[in-house]
Fold these 4 entries.
Entry 1:
Amino acid sequence: MKKNNIIIIIIIIIIIILYKPKIKSSFTNSYIIEGDTIVQKYKNVGEYSRFNYKTKKSMHWYNLQIIDHIKKSKNNKKILMLGVALGGMIIHILDEDKNAHVTGVDISDENFPLVRQYSDVNRLVLIKDDAQKYIANTNEKYNIIICDLFIGVNMPDFVLTNTFLNKIRQMLLPGGNFYINIVNRSDALSIIKQTFVNDIITTSTNNFNDLIFVTVKNS
């Protein structure tokens, strides 16, 4: 009887080892494969992003809110994504809208291979660069700019500055949209209104995140 118990325990240990979620670790974050989903977790902070790699759909509230706004936009879809992270939003957008072209900028390129694996690379450009430096040095114009920049749960200090936001507005084509994910900044809306003075601004809130959607006037 004891021998049978030992055999069962050994079998259980082997199953645990074989089916343990695969983890790709780095200094700041990791992603875990759980069934059909890929999850990104920041160490000591919690889950940051999640998408289904079979359906190519993002699964987080704030991503889905932004994607829904993009789907409703009548603009061409030349999109700049500041902060690629796991890449679920980019993968979802490119899969759902065959007219979308996305440029993703991130200070780390560790997840770029993952994004390319599940995306149409003919409509995708990924750039390893600091977002602040990128927008300061580019003359490109976009229909849509998405800002999802974080260090852990904190936004970099430069994001909610007049210099950064003014350049964002200059980069938007007439009628363009700016979407920004906000965490832990109750003053964000008032700061953004100082730059996008006469533009259309709406917000959406769900527990941890505040989303601000801006549509610039045709001028």
Note: DSSP finds seven helices and twelve strands in the chain.
Entry 2:
Amino acid sequence: MPKSSSVYTRVEPGLKEKAEQVLSGLGIPVANAINMFLHQVVLQNGIPFDVKIPHKMPLNYSELSTEQFNAEIEKGIDDLNAGRVTSSKQIRKEM
């Protein structure tokens, strides 16, 4: 079926740029990715992935203020002092 309908949306510029970089690496234009998503919505009769808040998201330190960054460093120091650490040997074993 020929494509004759358009979808217009506003997205965060940074998010769009990051998504374009990922999709470019896959060789998929953004328009094709959106089309693929919409096909999956129809096939799955809903959103084709879980929509939920992750249990624990990793911090993006570039988005933290100086005060927030310092608070995170203090948490790490507190964990070290309290013995809440995992050895690199244990991490390798689990991997």
Note: Residues 61-94 form one domain.
Entry 3:
Amino acid sequence: MTMQVRDATNTIITIPKPGTTRFIVVTGTALTRPANQTPYSAGDHIANDPDASDVTANSITVADVADQPFTVEAFTLTTNDTGPGAAGATVDVHIFNSDPTANSGVGAGDNATYAQKRAGWVGVLSGTFRSMSDGSVARLVPASGDNRIIMKPVSGGLALYWQPVAVTGFTPSANSTTFTPTVEGFFGRA
């Protein structure tokens, strides 16, 4: 985008229009894990299906203009799991700017050691669940020591993809527990 202004000699010149930045807080669709109480070990993928070929990509719409950069400052993950297993568990959330399930990218289903192709991988956030009366909540921050992860959404799109991984083992307390993500960051417009 550009704008036209007149210089000191009254000549019209074209300059880039200043961009705008705005704060975003968006919630994505919940991931529902399989109906079992199988314990997770450190490094296990938390997914919607035990079969890697049936794992569904988890996405969050984070932008309102395709292909514009944004930052991920924090990621909140809530679960309806009320047991002591989830509280205190640490998780990583890997984020991608392309569908991680495409081209057989997912190498492991739920409760299997996380194995993923690198295509589209942008970064990882980490946090620990805290117990609440109706579940648990984890606030995740970039694990690399940076304050933020700067990225573009899926090519031609508005979303990012995410995959949770257990860093510490835990036992889910109920069948079909859900994990709901909320992303905080800034959306920039060129």
Note: The two ends are 7 Å apart (CA to CA).
Entry 4:
Amino acid sequence: MKLLLDPGALDRALSLHLSPVTIPYPPEARPAAVLVPVLLDGGPPRTLLQVRSQELRDHAGELSFPGGKPEPGDADLLATALREAHEELALPLDLVEPLGEMRSVPVITGKFLLHPFVALVRGTPPLRPSPELERLIELPLTPWIKGERPIHGTVGTWRGATFATPFFRLEGGEVLYGASAVIFHELLERIATSCGHALPPLTMVEERPWGERYLGQVK
């Protein structure tokens, strides 16, 4: 499979109309925004994930995209995503080109509904993770799209609905799961479809990578 990923392919990917996400969320879930950066600097196409500090109260040690809750000065949720990426990664916003929004996804606790915005990052900007982060991970896109690395899935019941959710075992031993994994999976699905390919199906397993972390909230 030959995969040519360029800004035009990303634009086509973001213009696709996909079926709604079937993951339910409570009406009291508050809006939040994340930035899904795509780096196209001549090397392998990749995105950026952050590893949250083990000292944080919520989602400690988990992998996520930069983002958070809106603040009064934010014009909209895209502005929230851009501000958070700058605060958390020191990402120079003059190198960021927003491309579009993907489907909203609830976090596993049900407290927030994430609105993911995909953006092209030009060049190779120096990044400086905030103290709330342990480190950054550059995650390549093409191995998952080509099927060189399996995309795992597990079936769970949450808030009365049963559905399959993806998760990703990374080379460093980390596991991307939850809302961030759903967002990453949609990005891969959109890119594969825009390039004329079908994303490989989930490799289903019984493992739940979050273990007992959310016992009582995920059944």
Note: The mean pLDDT is 89.
